[in-house]
Amino acid sequence: MVPTKTTRVLVLLNAKSGTLANSDAGDEAKRIADGFAAHGVTADVKFLNPAEAARELEAGRRAGCTAVVVGGGDGTIHTVANAVAGTEMIFGVLPLGTHNHFAKELGVSDDLPAAVDALGRALAAGDGVGPIDVAELNGQLFLNFSGVGLHPRVVEDREGEHERIKRVPLARTLLRKFTKPLALLVAFIRALGSLPILRLVVEADGRRLSRITPSLVVGNNVHQMAVFGIGEVSVLRRDVLNVYIARTTSVPQVIRLALAAAFKRLSANRHFESVPCQTLTIRYRRPTLKVTMDGEVMRLRTPLEYRIRKAALTVVRPGGPATVGDAAAAAAE
Question: Model pTM?
Fold first, then answer.
């Protein structure tokens, strides 16, 4: 049974995440611990090697921690969430990544001190603590979205572009907080030169669709649906998979889709298809396919099996209702 109040929390931070890597003071760990202590919550703050997530969680449980709060990018949060799933530990997040989509869906402030204060208050009182449904692919859960085709290629190229940009002293200094977005843009432009074209058979709740597409994305993060302006063609709940398919193989039309996403006009584009479902199977002619989950690229065996894992995580949503999804949907309207 999940405790209603927390007196000890494990805080796992990725030192390479955007906020920490760009910090001048380097005192975030102390400020986080002090912020929780102000509410009577002892915080065991540790810097995390994502490969050690399961071991750190077990050590935290033995030390009496009943909640874990993670600060890092999407990949770090994804790793810790998978380690927490199925346990009784409460899961919370800090806004230390680039976009913080899941943190925003939980109602966590972008301001770190404000986020720590709100999380400390909520955990100490047991407010806003409850289960949420989470999307799953081939047994791994993800919190934001998963993609095949264009997105895995762009993410892979982005890492190389990011390293090249950081080697340029002027860019590293002047564009300190914008090197990742710039790398993403460069990687996207490069990917257009050899646009991936996938022939997929998509089974959504048993309905069979044949699609030729450069990009298919699956998600159930309500905040992201609002960010991309596709709320009106989506089911704004966490218990539904929203499948988004690019219905064009034309490079100019793909560019128009990207611009439509940037200006929240995707739902009005005739080359954009949205398919809500509970279960999704993607069949491909090859035995494996590159996939992204929460920004991490991996190669998985096909067919790809997506579903909703009910009440997969017990989360803390500071200042809001325990169950996210319906509340986030209301905020997006």
Answer: 0.88
